[in-house]
Amino acid sequence: xxxxxxxxxxxxxxxxxxxxxxxxxxxxxxxxxxxxxxxxxxxxxxxxxxxxxxxxxxxxxxxxxxxxxxxxxxxxxxxxxxxxxxxxxxxxxxxxxxxxxxxxxxxxxxxxxxxxxxxxxxxxxxxxxxxxxxxxxxxxxxxxxxxxxxxxxxxxxxx
Length: 159
Hints:
The longest helix is centred in the C-terminal third of the chain and has 49 residues, at 108-156. α1 runs antiparallel to α2 (56-102). The protein has one domain (6-156). By secondary structure, it is mainly alpha-helical. The model has no long low-confidence stretch (mean pLDDT 88). Helices cover 88% and strands 0% of the residues.
């Protein structure tokens, strides 16, 4: 059955709406992830800029924080890659939906595999995004420990 009229195309358009909405949502997710990656890089640069002019304890703390930031950057990179693969899969799904109707090819297994693969990529991307958020808290804990030590020293001095 080849597509000969607009009426035959309407169900295909309706089916393609879901992946198109997915792509739109992925754009927002990718924007969030790239913003987080930019913040990680900016924070790393600011920590490393004045590293040489500080005490050894400060340098050790900064090195611990930068190690976490490096790991976070790698996790965010993987999350971005998987989100992009999800977007690519959704795009291929839309293309295959139209081609299967235009060329009269029945591809239910291939379409299902592409959709399932896309959802697996999205799920894994969100997992890496969640890991990044948890690592952000670990880096914040290191910073808070440093501030707590400073606060205790100031309290002992009577400030």
